[in-house]
Amino acid sequence: MNDRSVFMSYKSSKTVAAETVYQFLHGALYGGVWGLVTPFPAPGSAAALKEAATGVFRPVPPFGSVSTAPSNAIFFGSVLAIQRFSAKSLELMRQTEDVYNDLFGFVMIYPYYTSILNHSERRLIRHNRAIGGAVLLAVIYANVLA
Asked: What is the pTM of this model?
């Protein structure tokens, strides 16, 4: 096989950034849909605080809490983005495309999850606000300034 005809997605850091953004949007779509039908209340909401105070879980009906959609979209999107960023960065450094890069990306989700997403509800809320703000700034930049 001719080496020039082989697809290589690790050609530049721009490719890594593009893949990361694409995976974030992909995960945000899945997370948004999950947020519409999930039985769990949004972090920091009145239902979540009541559950924490009483210890009794009361599921939210489907489409009963639309406020969970952004929170879940950011959660899913950031997990998928971390996986893709880690995998594609290793691929760029190694200059080879194989399954070990993806496995490395999956392993890198665990420290991200334990240190940020599962550490405390306050940290999760800060994380979601930071990611949401970054997405909002990117949309403003793309539509107004660029």
From this structure: 0.75
